[in-house]
TrEMBL record:
Statement: the UniProt record of this protein carries the keyword Transmembrane helix: no
Protein name, as recorded: Adult-specific rigid cuticular protein 15.7
Keywords linked to the UniProt accession: Cuticle, Signal
Recorded GO MF terms: structural constituent of chitin-based larval cuticle
Signal peptide (residue range): 1-16
Species per Swiss-Prot/TrEMBL record: Nephila pilipes
GO cellular component term of the entry, any: chitin-based extracellular matrix
Function: Component of the rigid cuticle of the spider.
Length: 150
């Protein structure tokens, strides 16, 4: 009889623990935005990003070397995954689309056409191959009127 009471007490304790769920506080999404520009001896680096707090993120980062080579990466992340467009004039780079990342190269030895995403949401990334070879990208805050896309 005592064994039956002990087993019943253990069973009650185990079942009570299995149904306990602590309350987790729910917070509203917090949008964010940041940017920076760091000038060094060898290169200038910048990063800008904006998020809506629900997992949708837009941003870009840049690096410009003293020799004039540069790389600008624009990216978005959200329900459709991560998408990136890399614009560069670094020697040895080609126009390509590995793993849905668009590489647009204006290097003198770049091969291949500039490739864009197949979906309609990314058609804004199409580019003219005859763009200026010495184009310089400047990072500005997302609130600056110059940051708006045409």
């Amino acid at each position: 009889m005592q064994l039956l009471i002990i087993l019943a007490a253990i069973l009650a304790t185990v079942s009570a623990q299995a149904t306990y769920r602590p309350q987790v506080p729910q917070y509203a999404p917090i949008p964010y935005s940041f940017n920076y520009l760091a000038e060094g001896d060898e290169a200038t680096n910048g990063h800008q990003e904006t998020g809506d707090g629900n997992g949708n993120v837009q941003g870009s980062y840049t690096i410009t070397h003293q020799d004039g080579t540069s790389r600008v990466v624009e990216y978005t992340a959200g329900p459709d995954g991560f998408k990136a467009v890399v614009r560069t004039n670094e020697p040895g780079t080609d126009n390509s689309n590995p793993a849905d990342v668009v590489f647009e190269s204006t290097a003198p030895d770049a091969r291949g056409p500039i490739i864009t995403y197949g979906n309609t949401a990314s058609q804004r990334y199409t580019t003219n191959r005859n763009q200026p070879q010495n184009m310089r990208y400047v990072l500005v805050p997302s609130t600056d009127p110059r940051a708006r896309r045409q």
